[in-house]
């Protein structure tokens, strides 16, 4: 939720708008050059990818996202009144359908300001409506940039992307809204498919990813902003329906990488709000909590980044509303420092903190912010200090909201780090009277982890819950290997490590050995016991789908709950003799510490050790059985 948005009570549908306008700004002077400290100016080589919890550049060096949000192109109109009137725009700041401030300062000056305050990257919001808006922007909207007169909003967006990347700033494209208006209440922007079809949303993403493919410093696709409840429906994480954000983001991310730009990071934000914000009714801000039990697995491993938003006036169960629709739940600013840090960990930061789990990934706090000079609230100021402390302590990637704002006689919205008045005069963070300056300097100046980041073992979840979950690019390019069944396959370079007794989930890894399946080697779909050698019955009385010698499991297929087939990849070599049976039909059987994490919450699971590979699946067809996996045949890698 962006500060100052009108928030709508989900219970009352669109009946009551609850303005959350932050206080106005006060006086100030001139900017300090934080970029000189090296936080923004360090060299980096695109494209970006991930190694465990870190984002790295093409050389494998850590690239920490020190970002800000340059909003405006996705719209500032509040949805009522004449959109040409400034008063009908958020905080009176009419962006004119372009990134805010182009009427007051040249692009080069604005971008230089970002570098001065220590940024190396910018989250750049757009709307789906903006993409197709053929109306030229008004001359007034780009008064300080006359070379942009007569251009469409998308063409102005192009120019902004070019200016940012020319200054060596990384750009993350952010699909902020469906329509070009301010969000985030019940406004038609609640979900990726609230005001448009999911197919149209995906098509727009392919268009945008292709549009900037030739610019290597456009590094990420932030799929959708603050997914939340509409009038009647909650979004969900994994139910397989039209409101399933997990499935929608999984599919869109895969399509972007496969069809448009394989170099982009895919940024998936957690769910921002579910339920009815009225005491006595269920409501909460799930954020990234569901990722612990159901995480994304991309065909292109090393491209997933999760994100979350935090503001002082919201809370783990508080929508941020005031007045009608406000609940008695605590806001983040009401929590003690220890309570706040605990909640932040549980809601989001565990994803980066817990290594070698199926969900382990960078977490980008892609929105946080607070009022500036005129913010005198003790709780608000304490929250910001405590929040910055947490970002520093966890070495988190971040993006402040917003970067650019208006001021008149040194007053205005006040949340931005850089403000311009009508005459082009700049008021900034380091003018000497902005209480946020010390915390900001501490944040952007924190070195954190730098330098080379070694590759780490990958763990990936397979979840053919509602359909195929084939994450192998090689298998996706081949014919259907078990028609009519739901199929799951590990990303290329990984092998199957675990299965659940029920629930159809699987766990993949490359720990101990990577690249076991050479491009020249083939595969086999096993549906019977033809490869079980005489005297090699490792699960007596059970049906065994065993890989041939020198092959290992990389996938499986199910019909309903029953195992249908095993997918075996040829290693092109030989493995040592021997093996063991891991039973999990009556309880969990996983290595000590359970590396990879709980990949099938609430179900029995079996898992081979790190120095092993899975070579077979056993199940029983006896009366009353559902033919679900009961045992794995685990063999040594070397």
From TrEMBL:
Glycoside hydrolase family domain: residues covered: 106-402
Sequence segments annotated as region (Disordered): 73-97
Signal peptide: 1-26
InterPro entries, A to Z: GH, Glyco_hydro_5, Glyco_hydro_5_CS
Keywords recorded for this protein, A-Z: Glycosidase, Hydrolase, Signal
Top-rank taxon, per record: Bacteria
Keyword Hydrolase among record annotations: yes
SUPFAM superfamilies the record matches: (Trans)glycosidases (SSF51445)
Record bears the keyword Signal: yes
Pfam families linked: Cellulase (PF00150)
Family: Belongs to the glycosyl hydrolase 5 (cellulase A) family.
PANTHER family xref list: CELLULASE FAMILY PROTEIN (AFU_ORTHOLOGUE AFUA_5G14560)
Record's protein name: Cellulase family glycosylhydrolase
Organism in which the protein naturally occurs: Phytohabitans maris
């Amino acid at each position: 939720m962006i500060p100052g948005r009108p928030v709508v009570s989900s219970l009352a549908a669109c009946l009551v708008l609850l303005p959350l306008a932050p206080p106005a700004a006060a006086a100030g002077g001139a900017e300090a050059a934080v970029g000189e400290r090296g936080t923004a100016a360090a060299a980096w080589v695109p494209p970006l990818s991930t190694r465990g919890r870190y984002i790295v550049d093409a050389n494998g060096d850590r690239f920490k996202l020190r970002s800000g949000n340059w909003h405006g192109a996705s719209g500032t109109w509040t949805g009522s009144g004449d959109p040409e009137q400034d008063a009908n725009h958020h905080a009176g700041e009419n962006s004119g359908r372009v990134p805010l401030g182009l009427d007051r300062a040249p692009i080069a000056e604005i971008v230089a300001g970002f570098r001065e305050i220590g940024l190396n990257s910018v989250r750049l919001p757009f709307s789906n409506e903006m993409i197709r808006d053929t109306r030229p922007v008004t001359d007034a909207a780009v008064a300080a940039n006359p070379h942009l007169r007569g251009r469409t909003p998308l063409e102005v967006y192009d120019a902004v992307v070019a200016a940012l990347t020319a200054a060596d700033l990384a750009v993350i494209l952010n699909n902020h809204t469906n329509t070009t208006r301010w969000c985030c209440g019940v406004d038609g922007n609640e979900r990726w498919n609230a005001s448009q079809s999911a197919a149209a949303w995906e098509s727009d993403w392919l268009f945008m990813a292709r549009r900037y493919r030739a610019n290597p410093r456009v590094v990420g696709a932030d799929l959708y902003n603050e997914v939340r409840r509409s009038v009647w429906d909650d979004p969900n994480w994994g139910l397989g329906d039209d409101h399933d954000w997990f499935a929608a983001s999984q599919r869109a991310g895969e399509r972007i990488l496969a069809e448009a730009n394989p170099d982009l990071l895919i940024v998936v934000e957690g769910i921002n709000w579910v339920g009815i914000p009225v005491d006595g009714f269920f409501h909460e801000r799930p954020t990234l909590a569901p990722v612990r039990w159901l995480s994304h697995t991309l065909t292109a491993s090393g491209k997933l980044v999760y994100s979350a938003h935090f503001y002082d006036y919201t809370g783990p169960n508080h929508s941020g509303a005031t007045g009608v629709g406000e609940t008695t739940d605590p806001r983040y600013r009401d929590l003690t420092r220890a309570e706040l840090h605990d909640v932040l960990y549980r809601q989001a930061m565990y994803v980066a903190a817990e290594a070698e789990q199926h969900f382990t990934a960078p977490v980008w706090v892609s929105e946080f912010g607070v009022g500036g000079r005129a913010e005198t609230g003790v709780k608000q100021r304490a929250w910001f200090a405590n929040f910055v402390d947490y970002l520093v302590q966890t070495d988190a990637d971040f993006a402040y909201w917003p970067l650019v704002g208006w001021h008149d006689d040194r007053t205005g919205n006040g949340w931005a780090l850089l403000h311009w008045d009508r005459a082009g005069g700049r008021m900034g963070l380091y003018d000497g009277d902005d209480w946020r300056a010390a915390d900001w300097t501490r944040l952007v100046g924190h070195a954190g982890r730098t330098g080379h980041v070694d590759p780490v073992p990958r763990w990936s979840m397979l979840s053919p819950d509602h359909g195929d979950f084939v994450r192998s690019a090689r298998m996706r390019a081949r014919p259907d290997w078990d028609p009519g069944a739901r199929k799951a396959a590990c990303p290329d370079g990984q092998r199957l490590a675990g299965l659940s007794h029920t629930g159809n989930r699987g766990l993949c890894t490359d720990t101990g050995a990577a690249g076991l399946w050479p491009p020249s080697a083939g595969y086999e779909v096993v549906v019977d016991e033809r490869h079980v050698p005489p005297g090699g019955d490792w699960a007596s009385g059970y049906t065994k789908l065993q890989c041939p010698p020198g092959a290992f499991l990389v996938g499986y297929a199910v019909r309903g709950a029953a195992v249908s087939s095993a997918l075996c990849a040829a290693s092109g070599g030989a493995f040592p003799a021997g093996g063991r049976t891991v039973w999990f039909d009556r309880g969990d059987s996983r290595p000590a510490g359970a590396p990879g994490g709980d990949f099938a919450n609430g179900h029995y699971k079996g898992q081979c050790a790190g120095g092993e590979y899975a070579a077979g699946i056993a199940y029983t067809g006896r009366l009353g059985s559902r033919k679900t996996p009961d045992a794995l045949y685990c063999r040594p890698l070397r």
